[in-house]
Amino acid sequence: MDKKELQNLLEQVAEGQVKPEAALLQIKTEPYKDMGFAKLDTHRGIRQGMAEVIYGAGKTKEQIVKIAQAMVEEKEKTVLITRMSKEAADYVGEFLDLHYDEISRTGMVGQIPKPDGVGKIVVATGGTSDMAVAEEAALTAEVYGNEVVRLYDVGVAGMHRLMDHIEEIMSARVIVAIAGMEGALASVIGGMADCPVIAVPTSVGYGANFGGLSALLSMLNSCASGVSVVNIDNGFGAGYLASMINHLEGRKE
C-alpha cells in the first residue's frame, strides 16, 4: 500500500464506505517482514511514497526470488531489482514474470505505472558508454510514475548534438546529466536549464579518470547553479531523486 492508496482508504472510512475495522485490517501489518536473511520494509511506500527496491548485487539468485515473491504477496504492483546479473534474471524469470534490461542490469516484476508526475524527466548522457547508468536512472524514474525523455550521446565533444535538443532541455521538470571523462555535460546543461539538474559521474574514462573520480570532482565544482551530484555510477539514486522532485507540486497534504 502506498500513500495514495492509504489516503483513499482513509477517505472511504470518513465517508462511511469502509468500516474502520476493515480498514484497520488492511494496514495492521508489521512495519517489516523478517525473512531471516532480510527484513523487508513493507511500510516504505506509506512513509516515502515509493516501495523498497531490491539491490541485486551481493544477493544470491534464491534470495532475490524470495524477496521479490514476498513483495508481490504484499500487493506491490511493481517490484524493481537493480544491479542484477543475467544468471539471476534467468532464475527469477522461472518463478515470476520478470522484465530484464541487460544494458543496465535492471529487472522489473509487474507493469510500469501510468505517469503521474508533474512534468517530464530528461535523462542525458555524454556518450554511448554511459548508457548502462542512464538506463538504470531512466527505468527507475519510469517505475515510479514519470515520463522520461532520453537524450543519449550528446556530450561536449560535439556540442551541436546537445543544441539540437534545446526544447527538451528547456521544458524539462528535472534533468539527469550523466557523464564520465571530465564530466562537463552537467555544467553545460546546468547553465542552460531552469530546473534542477542531477549530475551522475560515471566510471567511464581513461586512466587519469580514476574510476569516475575526475568526473565526480568536476561535477562537485560546477559553476552552474542548481546542479546537485550523486555518487559515481548511481543511476538509481538519480532516477529516484528526480522522481521525488517531479512529484512535489500538487501533492495532497
Automatic annotation (TrEMBL):
Source organism superkingdom: Bacteria
Organism per entry: Blautia argi
Any one GO molecular-function label of the UniProt entry: hydrolase activity
Source organism phylogeny: Bacteria, Bacillati, Bacillota, Clostridia, Lachnospirales
The PurE domain, residue ranges: 119-251
GO terms classed as biological process: 'de novo' IMP biosynthetic process
Protein's name according to its UniProt entry: Nickel pincer cofactor biosynthesis protein LarB
